[in-house]
Amino acid sequence: MATAAVMMPSAQAAESTLGAAAAQSGRYFGTAIAGGRLGDSTYTTIAGREFNMVTAENEMKIDATEPQRGQFSFNAGDQIYNWATQRGMKVRGHTLAWHGQQPGWMQSLSGSTLRQAMIDHINGVMAHYKGKLAAWDVVNEAFNEDGSRRQSNL
What we know:
Elements: H1 18-23, E1 30-33, H2 41-50, E2 53-56, H3 62-65, H4 75-85, E3 90-98, H5 104-107, H6 111-129, E4 135-140
Parallel strand pairs: 1-2, 2-3, 3-4
């Protein structure tokens, strides 16, 4: 008859959630949250229990935060920020510059016009979230999977 011994970590060493386990070594364990799913109790229960950092899935991207040039909308991003901070979670902003999900007004811009639009966009978003977010994904997917530079107006 064969027997097996299973070594269990001590109660002190074992953490009850993935976020708590990561925090033991000064790390975070994060997830992307979709604002449209915040009404799903299974989704929010797991996210609220297991993670200690949240990244907005799409709600802080250019098309969501500046749908019309110079007209900012932070409602969707703020909804995720508020949900996370009410639960003691940190929030990571995502993303200030990305070739995907550019609003229509931005897609045809180039040169100094695009540069000024990006400066204005970044300043507007950063002013709104100043001092609130733990980190930012500033540029997303600037390179293709093969390491070549992505072709985009940005």
